[in-house]
Amino acid sequence: MNAPKIFRFKTLSDIAIRLRSDLKDLDFVLLYAYNGTGKTRLSMEFKDRGKKGGEDKRDTLYFNAYTEDLFHWDNDLEYNTERVLKINSESKFFDGFKELALEDKIFEYLQRYATFNFKIDYEKWEISFSKSIPNPAYNPSNNEPETIVQDNIKISRGEENIFIWCIFLAICELVIDGAEAYDWVKFIYIDDPISSLDDNNAIAVASDLSKLLQKGVDKIDVVISSHHHLFFNVACNELKKKKCKRYFLHKNGENGYSLRATDETPFFHHIALLSELKSLLPKDGESLDDVSIKTYHFNMLRSIMEKTATFFGYDDFSKCIHGVEDEVLYARALNLLSHGKYSIYEPTEMGPDTKSLFVKILNAFLDKYKFDLPEIIVEEEKP
Hints:
This protein has eleven helices and twelve strands. The protein is of the alpha/beta class. Among the domains are: 140 residues, 3-Layer(aba) Sandwich (Rossmann fold), CATH 3.40.50; 101 residues, no CATH class.
């Protein structure tokens, strides 16, 4: 069996150069990476590489966490009744908005994921929303309609995210169709479009996106990056017959980054996550005090066990440790300690007792299931 190809880079800019080079011979590059690795910054590095010849030389239409910043709510309301979402009309993102009247295209996507409606005012560059709600005056014995339209509503943050995503899809469609307003686009870079969606919508979004982008083969080159395993798997499956390369992106502490080609192992990211957890365990000669394990690592361990349970057809992840010593204690601990909303951006060190329990559970899991774990971790150099 051939050894996996692992490419090492000092900076995200170096990776952006590599991806642009890959796309000379490919239609798609798919990246899987954990949150906090630098996926969003990589998308900006990729975009900036296209502006080396000046601002008017840009070549990348991108969607990432910063795309939401192109919209903001007008909260300066005298009576707080008419809420509108303001559009940053100066962005090239909206080059074709006014001339091409995108409402129909946007609504075609929006109706798949949401139940509200919208209207774009191209003179004021603002969007208003409406939704059908039950009519309180309705009665089977009167002539009142069952529902009425509530105008000028403020949609939820999740609804706003999916609306912005549908705008992006509509613009992608214009790019693929060769709209003159977007003839500067040579690459589309999409980073984590579904961070707040449930699994059903994640599947739908990945499938719809893949079907749309396949229409642009030989016209536009595409990079898609995600931390969402289900979204990533669906995209891999939908695009596998095209000229496509898959990578696992990993941050090697202070030693830069690595890209591992995973084209032959589409579920590589599951065991890569487990490999990362294993790297936390004390090495020979080390004690628990010598290693750093964060509270969010319990969430990661539970996530792996849930995926393993699904693979084996278990109805509960705790069955993954059935038969091991102290299985009842371990199952209870996993239930309790993996429910906190621990942030990888503000990591908190586990207490000594919790850390000891984590190590015991992880070792029990690794002893029971003999995964062939990849060597992807590059240890930080000690000062």
